[in-house]
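FYI - complex with 1,6-di-O-phosphono-beta-D-glucopyranose, inputs then prediction.
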Amino acid sequence: MYQGVIFDLDGVICTTDEFHYLAWKALADKEGIPFDRETNNLLRGVSRMASLEIILRKASRSYTDEEKAALAAYKNDLYRDYLKQITPSDLDPDVLRTLQTLKDKGVRIAIGSSSKNTKTILRNLGIIEQFDAIADGNDIQRSKPDPEVFLVAANKLGLEPASCVVVEDAFAGIEAAKRGGFAAAAIGDAVKDPEADYVLSVLSDILPVALSA
Ligand code: B16
Ligand code: MG
């Protein structure tokens, strides 16, 4: 049994990964930069500015630091507009059941997300009080694939990495978990990652992993 489960947010607890895609796509279209789902998958778990740098690789001109800051703010404004529509009814019942079962069994649960919008999302979903710890983009200097956000989460839980399993939808997140000494469970896009220790079809597949390991 694992003593703690650390969940990524976008693409694991909720589908805000689609809102990230739509906001980046709008920015790319405005700038005339090619952008597709494949490029979007490279942005999973990666910080806002690092994501912008990846998108700008396909731009036909270079951008100043000031222009980059303005583009990142433009994308975040679009993204935050999407977040306003989130309500507790957007929470997948399988996610809620998973969180509640882990808590009932005494497993501590945390969020480990690169997003600086984490608390807004958790508040809108009505589940911010469910977590024993939240580590997000405001707590860290280095985003995934650096393990910092998961190490901060484990520290807040008072647990060692080896006693926790991380659930991730991003290759960068699986790498971060492994580099930090955590077990890694993949869902969504990350199921193709051979580095993952466990592969989940739905979030509740983490229950037998967490409760019987
Ligand atoms: P923000 P996660 C990550 O969240 C997203 O996957 C990634 O696409 C985004 O760029 C990053 O958060 C930063 O988000 O712009 O809201 O600070 O997957 O680590 O929960
Ligand atoms: Mg994610």
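The radius of gyration is 17 Å. The CA atoms of residues 99 and 130 lie 8 Å apart.
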